[in-house]
Amino acid sequence: MKIATYNVNGVNGRLPILLRWLKEQAPDIVCLQELKAAQESFPAAALRDAGYGAIWHGQKSWNGVALLARGRAPLETRRGLPGDPDDAQSRYIEGVVEGIVIGCLYLPNGNPAPGPKFDYKLRWFDRLATYADELLHLDIPAALIGDFNVMPTDLDVYKPERWKDDALFRPEVRTAFQALLAQGWMDALRALHPTGRIYTFWDYFRNAYARDAGLRIDHLLLSPALSGHLVEAGVDRHVRGWEKTSDHAPTWIELADHR
């Protein structure tokens, strides 16, 4: 089973790119972030024609997350991260596909830091940690997948010294990510590539992709009930080189039979 995450940076504007990648790679489960589309504007019909059922949590112009499954529709189990009933941003959707609970998330960017946006990011991270711990205690196959807007270590950023004050790399954020792993979640890509410089995002500016000046901010975290089935992980970085593409590349894992 192949599971992927992809920040599409506008699902309607990048729909030809998304459909091209889905046809090329045929992942079984896909988490999308940054839809930038209202609920009624999500291209469900086009994705259905491509063979994918979907659930989604849209928001006009900003944010938005979706969960796709090849040949079926995911069974929705949660819409929105618990812990703050007043949070109106569309950043979390969860569903079950083939017995796996998939939490698709788009963690806040948090810049500028310090400031209100960074405070919101840390609060959101706290809510995620609380809920993630609850998921682990269910002892079920589960994954938290998406754009975490965190570079966990120096290995995950092309020039760490340039990012020390950025909200994606500040110590508070990296500590929060490591606390998730300490609960028992596995960082799948890093587990299979412990020393590799592997990036998932390249800015549009300063020729970043050609220079390989990248960041690893898209992550797939696996529960203990699932992590033992991990066999491969990687990034479809060539997709970042396509014309009119997202600034992220699809990031994926392959699992052996988890049942």
If you had to describe this structure to a student in words, what would you say it looks like?
The record marks 149 as: Transition state stabilizer. With 259 residues, the chain is an alpha+beta fold. It has one domain (2-255): Deoxyribonuclease I, Chain A. Helices cover 25% and strands 27% of the residues. The protein has 7 helices and 14 strands. The protein has helices spanning 15-25, 44-49, 116-137, 171-183, 188-192, 208-211, 224-227; strands at residues 2-7, 29-33, 52-57, 65-70, 75-79, 92-97, 100-106, 142-147, 186-187, 201-202, 214-215, 218-222, 230-235, 251-255. The strands form 3 sheets. A 6-stranded mixed β-sheet has the order 3-4-2-1-14-13. A 6-stranded mixed β-sheet has the order 5-6-7-8-12-9. Strands 10-11 form a two-stranded antiparallel ribbon. Strand 3 (52-57) and strand 4 form a beta hairpin. It starts with a strand and ends with a strand. The mean pLDDT is 97.
Question: Tags for this entry?
Answer:
14 strands, six-stranded mixed β-sheet, 259 residues, globular, alpha+beta, Deoxyribonuclease I, Chain A, single chain
